[in-house]
């Protein structure tokens, strides 16, 4: 045996026994004797990969492959070296060449599947995984990667099945539990996801990804304080983890700590330059305004920052578009949102052109004479206000003219039964933009109706595509979208002001009748006494049943005037999902109200039956400014309680006005902030007057419910725009 082969044999012996420095010295000496020794180059590449020297490993494997171009093992390792430095196309070529030389190479096939997944060639990747699994179906890592590719391809049900098999066979497999949690999130089951993340952490307490994922699941469940604790735990594991800093900042933003969120996002950006972080930073808005000036500052900042992102020409992959820009809260500031929503839409369409995808049937549409296919999309088709305002519009569409489809992320167990029963077809879709739009495209709808664009990132981003030849928005979130692919905004003639068309980028359609066909709500069989409901035992109850983020700072003075003007007044408001918002409102009121704070009662959030009991117990209901009640107006009038409202400049502040107009009742709609307090005090302190108004409401409230005019006009409009 020559010296080179002796040295190579010695190197292999050192290598097997873990004496890596000695092995490397032997391989290098081999090349001194035999510069074309492919196996020595190959083994030096293996050692360089092991110590993390990617560039040296790549150079060694390239040299080995040049000398032995038909060696499948060398080609496989060269492919892995290319993948390590991000050269995925070359990695794919190496793996395919390795398989050409040795079709039985399971490792090369798995690596090819992995790199195809990384490149986004998911159909080909899944085929390679299936071929590999036919050879070795017991490999847990292979099955995990196969499930990950299924997840990326949007086949979440199939991915879930694989992960469930893994965790059943291997209860201690932390990765499988974590990945099963991710699938549960996509399938709209955050509680189950959280359980899987907790199981992962029981197995591996320092599993940083699972800790982050747990925080995100808790945030989705509205358990913001618990989510914050989860991210704090993640940061104890790694204070410099940019994702944990980012996610924690989003929780702070949701809890109303805008300044804390800004500092956290700055920290995340310092750790990693990520346009997703920059996007969230630009999109910050306060949940609770400290003052009108405070809201104005953040609104101006929002416009400026979005403009900066446009000028910077930020580009985002479609997977990153759910970064939480907080445009939802703009609608509660009482201003015309057309400009800011147009600017925001421009940013999204520039940053992620893939959003502007067109379904194939929209390009080749040829309408027949059959029923119009109409789809309704929302993430809230369950026990939720959005559902209550839509379901009877859908139910009232004539069956001989329309094929009605409901598309929702709500699980089949949660979806509203009446809504589902009214539809010809119900599509449960995952919380994944690409999957949802593919499913909608397959339905070949003529009209797609978005129930609440602006309530969540998914519906907003979907609307940038052309998924039906005609796309409409309705008032689940009553503000313009700014999106050019939303063609019509279907609103209420009696609710809109004369200049309403200037508030929308869409073509405004004013429907006849009440804003929607609303069912008379279920009333409590009996109303418990005040103490049982958590209400003050004595005094006049002025109840404001609106979400705390609707309480614009301009409401503070009339609320203070009510407390000053009626010594027996008890102001009742409801906590939000997170009690931090109640603390922010209380802090503001301590600065803006001179007395009466001890007569303000915060009630916890409660189920519908208990909420209706509180409304029935109220003496006076107080509508919020700028963005008033929708469902709560219907519910308050059903309870027969006078509602004090101030007519706003936009649809979202004119629901109470529209209802009083339809009932023909005057005296409860204020024309100014001062008049609002005066009306409330008259109702609160003059029982005879209050009783007379309540009697009028009970006599005339029927006009507000089960309105057929709006349904008939809705069907007529859809028929006209869909043909």
Structure description:
- The chain is an alpha/beta fold.
- Among the domains are: 258-355, no CATH class; 357-519 and 710-720, 3-Layer(aba) Sandwich (Rossmann fold), CATH 3.40.50.11380; 530-704, Glycogen Phosphorylase B (Rossmann fold, 3-Layer(aba) Sandwich), CATH 3.40.50.
- Helices cover 55% and strands 8% of the residues.
- It contains 33 helices and 13 strands.
- The strands form two sheets. A seven-stranded parallel sheet has the order 3-2-1-4-5-6-7, with helices on both faces. Strands 10-9-8-11-12-13 form a six-stranded parallel sheet, sandwiched between helices.
- Helix 1 packs antiparallel against helix 2 and helix 11 (174-186) packs antiparallel against helix 12.
- The N and C termini lie far apart (86 Å).
- The model has no long low-confidence stretch (mean pLDDT 93).
